[in-house]
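Deviations from the work plan: none for this task. Representative record:
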Amino acid sequence: MENLDAARLQMAFTLIFHIVFACVGMVMPFFMVISHYKWLKTRDYNYLILTKSWQKGVAIFFVTGAVSGTALSFELGLLWPEFMKHAGPIIGMPFSLEGAAFFVEAIALGFYLYGWNKIPEKFHWFTGIIVGGSGVLSGILVVSANAWMNAPSGFDYINGEFINIDPVKALLNPAWCTQALHMTLAAFTATGFAVAGIHALQIGKGKKVELHKKAFKIAITFGAIAALLQPISGDLSAKDIAKRQPVKLAAMEAHYDTGKGVPLYIGGIVNSKTQKVKYKIEIPKALSFLAFGDFNAEVKGLNDFPKEDRPNVPVVHYAFQIMVGIGSILMFVGILFFFTNWKRKQWFSSKFFWWLFVGMAPMGFIALEAGWIVTEVGRQPWIIHQVMRTKDAVTPVPGIIVSFYIYVIVYTLLTIAVTWLMGRQIKVLNETTK
Amino acid sequence: MIYVVLLFLGISLLLYVLMAGADFGAGIVELFSSKENQAITKKTIYRVIGPVWEANHIWIIIMVVILWVGFPVFYNVIMVSLHIPLAIMLLGITLRGVAFVFRHYDAYQDWSQNVYNWMFRISSLITPIFLGICFGALLSEKISIYNRGVIADFTTLYVVSWFNGFSILVGLFFASLCAFLSSVLLIGEASQEYAKVYIKKASIATVVVVIIGFITLSYGFYIDNLFVNLFTESMFAKIPVVISALLLFPLWKSIKKGRRIFSRFYAGVQVLLILLAAIVPLFPNLILTTSEPISILENNAPDSVIQVLGISLIIGGTIIIPGLIHLLKSFKLIKILERN
């Protein structure tokens, strides 16, 4: 395997891993403080038990996210030294602000985890809010750095030199808003459905139903609201990509030939040699409308771009289909929850209802990872869109494949360990008595 | 503004060495303890560094970010030449962090504790050794600069750069320094009878630090290392080292009298002096290579970037530092109250 491929695989693998932990670490504190709030208001012990058990989850996920994030901050340089040499000064601002936000989060978490019965009750609760708030803030900031790779700005690129650097303009790059919104909602959707699914499983098994129902409701409310808002944000993103990265949009839709009134393909199998998509569902003129808000707008096809500037079409297309497909399912399941809560309370006693949510547990994260594959693979062969190619950024150190295998082994073991630990947390939660 | 940025870089380095150092050292102390003491050390460590260890480790991220934003060429050399030890150090940080949290948050206390304990102890030793190796490598004159197009073999570029006697000695020196810091910290936190255990550890660590430090310098002198030559010639190095050695007397006095604030202060000042002694004679040429040294003041980012970086660091610092002090204070206060 070539060094470039090994480096890309390692980066992808560590990011896929880190994103899960980072999302849970930034969203779960919100569930925790809601439960904590309810404990302070109602003094119902179920809420206290739940808060303390979620707090352990937050601690485990936070630390795994933090150490894998530390590893990533080094990996950027270890794997892509040429990229960092030029881009580092330009995108330093989101990273330094993210560092600050993360620092605040770590300090607040120190107060929260160790503050029970030691610091004033309300202040203690408030530190939980800071944990969540600064977590989301650092997520939003770090997305800015990624958005900059899609929409490079804040510098002039002349004769291979980056000059007139304006870090503030780079921070406020045009892709930031849509990407950050999409990612934040995705984090809430994925974590909400995952946590709700885990508690639904306990309800389905008939364990501590009262407690787990409370947990389920908190988590699913966040998840379902985010899932309902996500299509709006997705639409904004699509329009943005159509304007700035037409080749990415074309790859997402496996759209080869430029035309007007272009149909939208749902699913299908892409043959990149014959440039045909088989077994798809075709919606006439829909792509033109979704991309530009006009049924007859012209959408550029992949063939308008030189071969060496195109990403891997099947990967991007399939990932995009998975993301949108699952996103839609989650939205409907979210509506189902609100409907049940509002008009059909009797469905809460149906086993089918709970097993449906158990099935949804991993879905949000699958969609989220697929979404990142769309944006990252869709940007290739560029590491900085139309400025620097990924192959020019990679480290000269040979044998990256070895470190890739080590990361695969270590992170796989960590994933197994964290899953197993969560299982034990739930087991002990079910054994706890008031 | 560049000096503001350098000041923050220096402060981050100092705080990382002090706080994360004490944190690594705790694992090393635990590793070299009898079984009974290990259990007690584990509890003490959890109480003392539990609330703050995550914050401690963010200093290295701040350092890395400052380096890549402000000093990209400098950063590039480190990341390429020291790829292997940095990667090992990262694995160590990862395993250590998760082991620390797993062993306290696992819902059941069973056989798994053993796995976490050993993971924590061993990675606590390996991580600072490799971090020290990276520090040493920068001063070892063994780093060859990679040039695209110029053919050089893998060993010279990526192995000899850090796998050499001097760097390894610095690695061992750093690990023993961590153990020293940590035992000084733990003395103040343990109960009367266990404080004795840590006093013994601290005295062993002191001896080890002095011996390894001496061997490192002699070896550097023997191989005619530029850093050691400058170090032995410069007054800026000699004076801090002498003061640092003299500080051992008030340090031990305050340890024996149980003045924990003073003993920590002296230990901290000693580390600061050692860092100053290592950096000042070289400054600004902080990477010594096989050819020309690399200056941290040359090839830095454009002024506009340094301006913004400096301002964000000042703003970030004013938010973070009071919070951090408050965190440290809160839990210290609580502990004193608990004991009464």
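Chain A has a mean pLDDT of 86.
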